[in-house]
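Exercise 7. Predict the structure of DNA helicase from Infirmifilum uzonense.
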Amino acid sequence: MSATFERVGTHSHIKGLGVRNGEVLPVGDGLIGQTEARKAAWLVVQLIRSGKMAGRAILLVGPPGTGKTAIAVAIARELGPETPFMALTGSEVYSAELKKTEVLMQAMRKSIGVRIRERRWVYEGVLEKLDVRYDRHPLNPYTQVPVGGSITLKTEKETRNLRVDSNIIYQILQKGITEGDVIWIDEETGRVSRAGRAKGYGEFDVQPKDIVEVPSGPIYKEKEFVYTLTLHDLDVMESRSDSILSIFFGAPSQKEIPPDARARVDKTVKEWVEAKKAELVPGVLFIDDAHMLDIETYSFLSRAMESELSPIIILATNRGYTRIRGTDIEAPHGMPLDLLDRLLIIRTRPYTPDEIREIIKVRAREEGVELEADALEELVKLGAEKSLRYATQLLSPALLYAKQNGREKVSREDVAEVSRLFISTAESSSYLKELEEKMLR
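Solution. The predicted structure, encoded as tokens:
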């Protein structure tokens, strides 16, 4: 008996905004309904692509369970598969180890990618033959260590025998590289990398799936490498190089990035961009429950929006008039009015029963749940009367209950039973009122 573990993400089915030629599809790219909000989000994507979002951010407002997070994810997916997407909630900025502004700064830097293009001279080919030369260890005469050797590389065009030093031999042995693997060796640094197993070399019944073609052209060649890092990755590398204690004594590296390290990274990245060695990939920073932020973090975000290196900032909240955290002032969504003036505000509305039906169908298909017609209608009823989230959360328990009773399809009785076992928020509140005197305070 075998079992497969699969983790289904809440928004794993979302591929984009579902807009074609400027028209919003009722059902498209995993999104259903919210046509007005999706049309506004599509216009935001066009502003981003045309470089006209500087100094502004987006605010998604609406009741709970109306797809605010889904629209934020869809905006990132619409911008491209390599678009960095960083999500956090307003409460996450209150860390015991980092300052509030440092948490937000790191989140912003994680939301900006740097696509680096680098041309290097390398030796690339299939490792046809490996000869290792051993000698006695200088400190232990009873142990032999590699001191050098030779390798034979082959491409479709030529075959060459190369003498290599102990550093390259060590890397080949440590990385488990064997004859028949495609490798490349950086001429400048001597770094050895394995690309995969050459096609047609060593046909086994069981082998890894990283089969690659035999390289064409000469063995010694100039090759372009493209890889993407975030600004935060570069910040960490830059700050670690300054930490003498962590190098010599193993002390923990600093968790807060020094401002001068970030300044050096920014200067280097700008030089790379100007020299056409790299390009920036602006991403999306999504902050859910934005009403949890306080006046200091709002001030920081207002300033950050005007920065040259700023991601697309999307805030979301389900609050109406409430107090701005850190003050005694009440304001719409618990946000300062000067910040609200900088935001493009998109509203989401409660779903209709027909939209709830389609959403449940999508979630059931994503989770592999087969529903009978009356079970689907029962879930639609629960979604309309209680909440959409409550209805979708019952899908997996209902399937498990059905299987325990020998059925592969979920029936209305299965839904009714799990809805009796797992109560909604409204039922929980009612239960608390009934037993208020017996509850601890």
